[in-house]
User: What shape does this take?
Amino acid sequence: MSYWYENAVFYHMYPLGMSGAPFENREAEVVHRFDELKRWIPHIQQLGCGAIYIGPLFESTTHGYDTRDCRMVDRRLGNNNDFREFVRLAHEAGIRIVVDGVFNHTGREFFAFRDIQQNREGSRYCGWYKGINFGWNNPYNDGFGYEAWRNCFELVNLNLQNREVKDYLFDVIRFWIQEFDIDGIRLDCADCLDFDFMKEMRWMTTNLKPDFWLMGEVIHGDYARWANQDMLHSVTNYELHKGLYSGHNDHNYFEIAHTIRRQFDENGGIYRGRTLYSFVDNHDVDRIVSKLNDPRHLKPVYTLLYTLPGLPSIYYGSEWGIPGRKANGGDPALRPALDPDEMEQKPSVEGLEEFLIFLGKCRSEHPVIGSGRYRELLLTNRQYAFARIGDGECVVVMVNNDDKEAQMNVQLPMAASGITDLMTGEMIQEQSGRVAMTLPAGGSVLLYVKQ
Assistant: This one.
């Protein structure tokens, strides 16, 4: 049985930033910014994305990860009914919804932490957090110490081995599934979460909604520890993310190919059978346009994002090539307010959105791109070719990071009765089981091969 998340293209929305919400949540009234966010759905559908990862959504104090209330949509975005309508419209457009699950920590305004501030040793919630110690103090001068996430003391680490905490969070997940019909959760800081907690979550969500998807934010380590049959369906592929931009900046396709060979090669790849979450930028890292030395490399970068093993994700605004660096204002510089109609009219990079629409169409019309076996066909520092192979068909992908055009001659992985250039629609001739193509500087080609 196949599930929607096995071959999806994701669109990543950071709603507080893209809707222009204030950084601090200090007003009492609800502001209905979901009216703005709903305008993005037709655009996301046109891009060919079948899922939206949107978050954070929980009521919070500032950036969205310092949670106040896990059952309430942040009032800077709207109310729960606004989000319910957003999910309904997305589902009508054939788009699944995945939300942020911030379960490693809470903000200081969360009810359980406030109870400890008020009742100290007498609070029934002392066991809900890690490291509560009334003999210490903290930077906020509460008169007690606690364990904070990476010493960010606005984020108080939950004790996920506490049965009450787990039951509370599982009730929160049930609430979001039953009230809004969400399709999955992206687990913030999954590399900090307790493994038994994630195992219980997998069992609970699968029984509640069999096609419910769990994806974890993991940066370092063996991704198979988190992405497996017992815990999460997928994790963020930060290893590939790094290779996709530095492999182009350094004119070194060996870096990307080695990563994929190690992870997904049909003979010995350590993550074969797993589907990781691929991206070139997100709300925590610099925009891809700002990371690349040569803007001509945008097309081969996105070609690889869409065609290498993994679930590709587009971060809002990057389909128009907007820049963004942490060095220019921290995280908010990566999370600007945008008007999709204005961006459509005046994109930062002409033609990039249309190219992503083409790549999304390729994945939709030729699912073998996402599901086929990976096989490397050609590799130099500046040229790279591989195939995604299915039954009686494959798609051959070629990319060129050179400063000049390159001739590429590739051995086909199967006998071909027909070869189609998916960009031009032209039929390509093969000679003795090989195909030769000329790629411009920063060029890419996708060939559909029918046996």
